[in-house]
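Lecture 7 notes. Example A: sequence first, then its structure tokens.
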Amino acid sequence: MATKIYIDQGHNPENPNAGAEGNGLLEQNITYRVGIELAELLRQNPNYEVRLSRPTPTTSLGNSNSTSLRARVEDANAWGADYFISIHTNASSNPQARGVEAFAYSEPSRAFSLGEDIVENLSEATGFLNRGMKIRPGLYVLRRTNMPAVLVEIGFITNPEEAALMNQNPELFARGIYNGIVEYLG
């Protein structure tokens, strides 16, 4: 039986729940594109079944930040996903801040181990600094999902070099995440 992977492309096309901005780019556009590329990679592998929180660029979930997050979690739970991966870009007031990191609800856990493989492979694929795995039990999408959930910060949209690579080559980021999933579930 195929493993069901729910890909949550962080944020909505516009408010409510629009994402960070940096270097003329919007987080929600980057996460949308990386999610679409990741879904394509997973669909080419018969071991995976995929569902996207935002199947189209205009898909908007909820009418507030909290209902937007709830809609993503409820969709994944109702579908019976085996794993939940939420894609985000990081942001900082310091344009030099850089690197890839991810969050899980607790450690040790399947989500934490999956996140470690994703961050390692994403760092290898992009050349970005590996900032490691962190625990964030307060994050709604990690707390309310019925399955192991990882929130991945694929790089800093506020860092000019990282933002440029995200914009020019979303497939590279998708490939890094995909390689991490395959390594973990291998």
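Example B, a different protein, same format:
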Amino acid sequence: MTDGFGAGASRGEKRLVYLDYAAATPMDPEVVDAMAPYLTERFFNPSAPYAAARGVHADVEAARADAAHAIGARPGNIVFTAGATEANNLAFAAAGAGAHVVVDAVEHESVLACAGAFDHTVVSAGPDGRVAAADVAAAITPRTRLVSVELANGEVGAVQPVREIARAVSAERARRLAAGEAAPVWLHTDASQAAGTLSVNVGTLGCDLLTLSAAKIYGPKQVGLLWASDDVALRPLVLGGGQEGGVRSGTENVAGIVGFAKALELAGARRQVESRRLAGLRDRLQRMLTEEFPWAVVSGPRASKLRLPGLLHVSFPGLEARRLVIALEREGVCAGTGSACAASKMRSSHVLAAMGAPAEVAMGSLRLTLGRATGEDDIDYAAAAIARAVASECARLGIDAASGEKGGEA
């Protein structure tokens, strides 16, 4: 256990156990150290003409090169943004007015909102939250300019078949070329939730545009990037001084960019070991909860390789997740109920609805996401706290905690 979460707690003592890493990650100390000079003595505007500012500009470009190396790309194809939402908007803007776009039903709200501004087709997801590549291919029309499918879902952890979808998009591109059709078609993937534990090499994925967020990989908030292949002509959303190759004007967030590059470097170096560790902890937590409550519903793919290693989505049908979250907070356990964006607006999960989950399952859902600071002792503490919260709610509602059935029922 590091970074202060749960530090100093002994048996029976209340502690802080943070299980909402999909919503926000603490900045890694190495990221903070990398950013610090640009918040103090290296404060210069990288567009200014004098030597000190030119040095800062060089540091921005070095960070761009480091970020590009982390995803197997060239530096000139990366645009830094104020987060993943802006990067997603920039990707969709490339499709142009009048275009048709294809998205899947379990995408992040920023992607679905962007799709809503176009003629669009929404591809359904299966009960496990995964999208079939064949369904995406079938949704592509001659007017389609952009297909957007996330690498991994941030609510139930489903890893999507992006490589297969890339082949389908490539086949459509080849068909257009053979038919003499000039209209392009591109594949965009939002890999924000996946970057800490899955490979985000753009060549391997086969995508044409890729979104990443620093805030999901122990970097600063409000910093993101969009990578676009040479074939994609980006259209600026923010006009002004022409920074970021004229695609994203405004003085660069130098500290944020440097911190993002460092966070990507650390994520790549730790990815394999951390992924295995988190998968083991997630399985431990899942086993403890489902043994205690056999009626609990675990959402997402069954196969470990098809699910984000640090994410457990578990539902207690008939209970209200918000009451569970409040009860857990009293015991020092920070848990989520799904997307932080939706939770803040008290909206039900569009992801679970798209998966066909019954209302009582969606209502009683917890999203438990683990991170670098999570240890076995935290898992054990959290599991016990969740068990107490669920048992207490069952008693309040007259539900048998052993079976999940209302009292008096067989």
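Note on Example B: The mean pLDDT is 93. The CA atoms of residues 18 and 334 lie 5 Å apart.
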